[in-house]
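Because showing beats explaining, we let one protein speak, sequence and backbone structure tokens together, and leave readers to judge.
___
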Amino acid sequence: GDWSSDVCSSDLFPSHDRGVRLVIVFGLILRMGGIFLLGEIDPTKAVIWEYGTIAVFAMENGYIGEQAKNPEGYLFSYPTAFMPPVPIFVWLGFFKLFGVTKLALTGFLLLSWILSGVLIYQAARIAWYLFRAPSVTFISAGLISCYPTFVASVATYHAIQIYMVLFLGGALLALRPAPANWKTALGLGLLGGLAALARTEYVVLMAPFFLMLFLRRGKLGLLVLPVAVAAAIVLPWTARNYLVFGRFIPVANSMGFNLF
């Protein structure tokens, strides 16, 4: 079918539609162009942000930490809870496989590029669930496909693709027209826990999706299960923070700033 066909009566997003495919392909071409223009794969020159530098430190020292200079100019190391752990461990995975090399940085760029296509698809599907209008769905996907921040972020080692795919995945499960059941609740809890560990404010922002699932069926279990699963995923990192710092830090100590 195509975007002029009558698909609004269907409960399922027309994933076979050529319009969706074209928008995703166009977005991926834009992002690949961005990688060739902006992507720096030399580890000595690339800006890999806090997630990457913490992962490099962990490779060299065996724990999640950072290094800084005191006022006298001496280097010292310390454990950190400044950033949420999922992007750090993604970086660490590439470094474990390939070392802190050009190949590792290329792998991270490739992962971001693939996830960016998933992100466009998710945006289109959410628009379809909300409006059931092919034109709105096409425009929504097009906006995500061409939005400069999303295009540039793929080439510049930002973690946007990682946490947005998890967040929008939760939105899709909460909005999907199929009847909610324990599998949906389990999946939502899994995505909610990982999203919270990828972006601190999602500890709060995933909550409406949990509530939405409960309100659709009115079954308390559909609220308790995803909350329990998400909490079980986050709890080990929270326990690590308490053991290391002696303070209750659910994910990262930048959470208040991010929520602000």
Residues 1-12 have pLDDT under 50 and may be disordered. Residues 38 and 155 are 6 Å apart (CA to CA). Strands lie at 65-69, 75-79. The longest strand covers residues 65-69.
